[in-house]
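Customer escalation, tier 2.

The customer says the design service returned an amino acid string that "doesn't look like it belongs to this structure." They asked us to rerun it and document both sides in this ticket. The original structure tokens are below, unchanged.
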């Protein structure tokens, strides 16, 4: 049994936690006066009661963003860059408090929360620099009396709907390029983790963004507020990270206004260990990719494929590493595995494990609830494609392992999914590395690497894992319109 570690709590001044929404430069309660509770998944205790905005409150936030857009759009790029740099510096200055807030409301272990602050801030720094590089083009004209130019302009009001598993970084990854491009934003964080989002809004206010440029709407009415963000014609871009099912719904709701969309949706990431792999490196990569945030990440490994030649060696070393993981409240800095986010998440993990065992899977390690929302890190063997865990994201600390014999076989099975976000493989054969990387149907490939996310590279998927790319030099494109100017009568 893996014991739950007693927590040595890091104190946070709850009086300083923001609980009102931030609209048009002011902190506001919901017009109805309603609030909803934010629950610490590690303890079950309510951390705070947050303003519960509705569709009308959201419309007011959109109106404020729309009114603020022309003046902000016309700010020189250097001034927008300076505002973003101030925000970046403030995020790092408040790193410990932001990390503690994240751990308290989503259960992520504190060391990972600190890493997320750095990761999230890196997007603000990157796009502060990219704000000055939204170059256009001069096109050679087909006639001497014409001149043809392409310019890029901000798209307008941007709505973002972000997930609970990365409460800070999924906001900055969307908002930073929008602000850099000259857009104004309305942020809708998840009801599970609004406190980190409100803390970010407070720092944006301190950085000096003008009223109406940065707005944060907190709500428990995800459907009603999401529908308003999708159908309101003043919103010209929607960026969403979450499940494929919800992404499809939002896409249909955006159809009436033909919004530009970025959708970062579900995944079913394969992790392949070939017979010539460095097994110790593969185990390290599997651990960081599978068990980060208790297995609750969109690029988390969902299926492990290990070549028959190295299967026993990998499983022995992998099992030993999993058995060493410490489970408990994320505020304890010795813990590597925190709680699942809620009962719904826990029940999904339990259901997937039970289904796999019923269909012949073997539990190599773990396989049970320790207490509350803490699930024991688990390894399953003898996995078949008929099991639910082979077809769906488990979103928990469970690693199902397949055997395979040939490269062709494993590529076929790895690609046999509706999803295409991330994949990983380990091999020391350079020819195989190129072949497999090109053959895998996904937007991101980790080759001898289990941790792939960075602000400088494009993040996004194909197939039912979504549309668009976030981060990198490509990350500005979805927040800008390309305009062609044709000058005639030039002699």
């Amino acid at each position: 049994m893996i014991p739950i570690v007693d927590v040595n709590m890091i104190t946070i001044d709850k009086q300083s936690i923001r609980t009102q929404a931030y609209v048009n430069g002011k902190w506001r309660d919901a017009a109805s006066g309603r609030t909803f509770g934010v629950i610490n998944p590690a303890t079950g205790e309510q951390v705070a009661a947050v303003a519960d905005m509705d569709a009308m409150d959201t419309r007011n936030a959109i109106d404020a963003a729309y009114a603020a857009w022309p003046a902000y759009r016309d700010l020189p790029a250097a001034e927008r860059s300076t505002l973003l740099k101030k925000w970046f510096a403030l995020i790092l200055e408040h790193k410990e408090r932001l990390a503690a807030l994240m751990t308290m409301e989503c259960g992520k272990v504190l060391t990972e929360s600190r890493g997320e602050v750095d990761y999230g801030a890196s997007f603000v720094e990157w796009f502060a620099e990219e704000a000055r590089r939204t170059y256009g083009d001069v096109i050679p004209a087909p006639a001497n009396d014409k001149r043809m130019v392409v310019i890029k302009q901000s798209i307008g009001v941007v709505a973002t709907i972000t997930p609970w598993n990365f409460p800070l970084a999924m906001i900055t990854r969307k908002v930073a390029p929008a602000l850099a491009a000259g857009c104004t934003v309305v942020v809708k964080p998840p009801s599970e983790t609004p406190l980190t989002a409100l803390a970010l809004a407070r720092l944006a206010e301190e950085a000096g963004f003008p009223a109406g440029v940065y707005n944060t709407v907190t709500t428990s009415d995800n459907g009603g507020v999401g529908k308003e963000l999708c159908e309101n014609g003043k919103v010209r871009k929607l960026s969403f990270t979450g499940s494929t099912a919800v992404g499809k719904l939002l896409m249909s709701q955006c159809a009436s206004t033909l919004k530009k969309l970025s959708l970062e949706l579900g995944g079913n990431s394969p992790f392949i260990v070939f017979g010539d792999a460095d097994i110790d490196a593969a185990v390290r990569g599997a651990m960081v990719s599978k068990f980060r945030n208790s297995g609750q990440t969109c690029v988390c490994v969902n299926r492990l494929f290990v070549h028959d030649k190295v299967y026993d060696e990998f499983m022995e070393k992998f099992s030993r590493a999993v058995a060493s993981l410490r489970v408990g409240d994320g505020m304890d800095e010795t813990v590597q595995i925190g709680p699942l986010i809620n009962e719904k998440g826990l029940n999904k993990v339990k259901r997937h494990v039970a289904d796999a065992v019923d269909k012949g899977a073997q539990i190599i390690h773990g396989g049970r609830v320790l207490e509350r929302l803490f699930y024991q890190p688990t390894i399953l063997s003898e996995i078949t494609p008929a099991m639910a865990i082979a077809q769906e994201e488990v979103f928990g600390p469970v690693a199902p392992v397949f055997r395979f014999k040939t490269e062709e076989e494993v590529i076929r099975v790895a690609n046999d999914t509706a999803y295409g976000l991330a994949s990983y493989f380990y091999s020391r054969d350079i020819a195989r590395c190129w072949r497999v990387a090109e053959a895998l149907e996904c937007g991101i490939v980790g080759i001898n690497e289990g941790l792939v996310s960075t602000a400088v590279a494009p993040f996004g998927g194909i197939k039912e894992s979504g549309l668009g790319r976030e981060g990198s030099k490509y990350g500005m494109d979805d927040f800008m319109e390309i305009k062609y100017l044709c000058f005639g009568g030039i002699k």
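Tier 2 assessment: The sequence is consistent with the input. The longest helix spans residues 110-130. The chain has two domains: 11-265+465-484, 269-454. Sent an explanation to the customer and offered a walkthrough call.
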